[in-house]
Amino acid sequence: MALAWQPQEEGLVQILTLLKESQSPDTATQRAVQQVSLKFKITWYVECKLDVCDGAFGALQKICEDSAEVLDSEALDRPLNVLIPKFLQFFRHSSPKIRSHAIACVNQFIISRTQVLMMHIDQFLENLFHLASDEDPEVRKNVCRALVMLLEVRMDRLIPHMHSIIEYMLMRSQDSDDGVALEGCEFWLSLAEQPICKDALSPHLPRLIPVLVRGMKYSEIDIILLKGDVEEDEMIPDREEDIKPRFHKSKTHSQKHMDDNVEEDGDSEDGLDDDNSLSDWNLRKCSAAALDVLANVFHEELLPVLLPILKETLFHQDWEIKESGILALGAIAEGCMNGMVPHLSELVPYLITCLNDKKALVRSITCWTLSRYSHWVVGQPHDMYLKPLMTELLKRVLDPNKRVQEAACSAFATLEEEACTELVPYLGFILETLVFAFNKYQHKNLLILYDAIGTLADSVGHHLNKQEYINLLMPPLIQKWNILKDDDKDLFPLLECLSSVATALQAGFLPYCEPVFKRCVSLVEQTLNQNMANAAHPDQFEAPDKDFMIVALDLLSGLAEGLNGHMEQLVLSSNIMQLLFQCMQDPIPEVRQSSFALLGDLSKACFQHVNPCISDFVPILGQNLNPEFISVCNNATWAIGEISVKLGSEMKPYVPMVLNQLVVIINKPNTPKTLLENTAITIGRLGYVCPEEVAPMLQQFIRPWCASLRNIRDNEEKDSAFRGICSMIGVNPGGVVQDFIFFCDAVASWVNPKADLKQMFYEIFHGFKNQVGEANWKRFSEQLPAPLKERLLANYGV
């Protein structure tokens, strides 16, 4: 082979030393080497020695991954201006390794839209298309990665070639190399987010959908890794490394809505993690996720293609194919629900029989898929679907296979959320099963069982407060509570569970409340003390894990909510108010969030102990009305409202500390619904106790105030807020004139206001009508939508 370049030995040694040191564990050495090597602007010629070239490219790829910004910096005279054109030449190198390195290097600069790459974008695309059918899997992988990123960054350049790219990705999604197939499958996830998805993909659905369903089938290696042939493993203890770390979600105060059955944050478990021991993203999960997102783009249009495939797979003799069909049916549940409804009366009973399949992996995926249709199940006559589903699902909660236990517990928690008080007639049976599982489960599933019990308590509320249920449920929970040490992270899910149980049981929790209260206070105090020790002597004391304190604060909130006035004695004999003052000033937002939730609950339960601290507490609440920390701001806002109602006219000196910021929040675009609702309620409550102070600002918030509260259910908080708005209109009627139509709409949202509140609304409507005169009122009422006009006439005679 003729060589165009013979390196001097000294120079070669220098370069190889640099490359070696670039892998140094010392980051300072790495950084220095990167700077030097970049300044060298190492370039190669196409026919350099392959072994040197490959090694250098490998190192350069590493530098591109770690120092993408540095390579484009003016300080180094933008090395990329030389490197990108050089990389593009290497796309056509005879060695597949070099081709692969070259694409991987360029790929590092796509998402950041690096200027020099954008200038060479057409050449880049041309070279990518040239490599489309490369025989090397690593090259094909990197081509797929590039095209997926270009969808986000340069869709304009891909559109003319979209038909060919989709054809190419269809082939890659079926590649004989699983790694390439996974990269190809990622394309459908990205394309689904693009506005052109529907038009571009419609003609290809008949070929794409079968590919995705085939991709959902467990591979042989998956089955080996999942021990798919092991049917009974309930006696085998879990390995600690198999238990994922758990993160506590701090308490947030929110309102119930008239259309509550809809998940607001959409973070429900997607069930594609039914195979946790394959925690890596794989072709099966990616294919299922792609079908899920495409179902949300195409909805019922998918079904003519998908239903024949489901008919074939769901009833297949081969269990792996049957299992993939059940997964596909679950994946489309959200996007294709309307189109699936006519088939569910046949499919749901079939799935319930699949809960008894002899293969554990079929039983576990069936649990998940049924949970995806639980909203429909709950809406049908109980005897037809809910009762058989619940009976079989509870059998699976006690399955001899741990994966099935986990899937059944999670599915049952979803069913609890959907069914709520519909489950009350079956509580005894449910509790007997869940409590039996306490003695059966290994470590990992025990943590999921706590969730299922907590969700049950949240769903059925005070219906749980029956002595027979308490006698079933509390002994195993308290036994676990007594065994766990204060530094055991298993306390997190147990405390979360107890918080829900305490809130639901109300006075039924009294026999257990004192030791639980004392331990929570102790956990908060220990964490604060360890934090102070660490701040003073970081070399001697470790920083505490503040999650212990957060979970303890949330359980105290649950106690206050459930026990109400019974909290008084517990708070009296503790230092919780002093500890709360410290927690409210913690630098960690989640600590402040939980502190403010507890302050609000204590204000409701035993205000006599909060009152002496008000002058210290309210300024801190005011400082936390920062919508950048949504949940902190939300709970601080709610606590201010609860304090106002208890403090009455004595709230007057504190109104200036909070009102302006609340008005800013309610007018801020893109503010989350929960925060808007709590802000509106708190402004209304401030106006209820101090109308003279708040009413002058009425015009600045009345429109968003009305819009925020029109959808929430009748309750005490809504009641006090509307009394406040009526009082403020009394003080400043001019403040509502321009937006009176919004006020009419908000009042019409009441289903059953108390008689005296209804009278207030009546007086405001008739006062306005008399003020403007019959003719003007008629003109105004003609602008109102017909349903609103009818409600006002029927309820208020206007």
From TrEMBL:
Residues 261-274 have a biased composition (Acidic residues). InterPro entries: ARM-like, ARM-type_fold, HEAT_GCN1, IMB1_TNPO1-like_TPR, Importin_beta. Keywords: Cytoplasm, Protein transport, Repeat, Transport. It comes from the Eukaryota. Residues 70-171 form the Stalled ribosome sensor GCN1-like HEAT repeats region domain. Gene3D superfamilies: Leucine-rich Repeat Variant. SUPFAM superfamilies: ARM repeat. The keyword Protein transport applies. Residues 572-676 form the Importin subunit beta-1/Transportin-1-like TPR repeats domain. Residues 237-274 are annotated as: Disordered. Residues 246-255 have a biased composition (Basic residues). It is found in: Cytoplasm. PANTHER family: IMPORTIN BETA. This is Transportin-1-like. It comes from Limulus polyphemus.
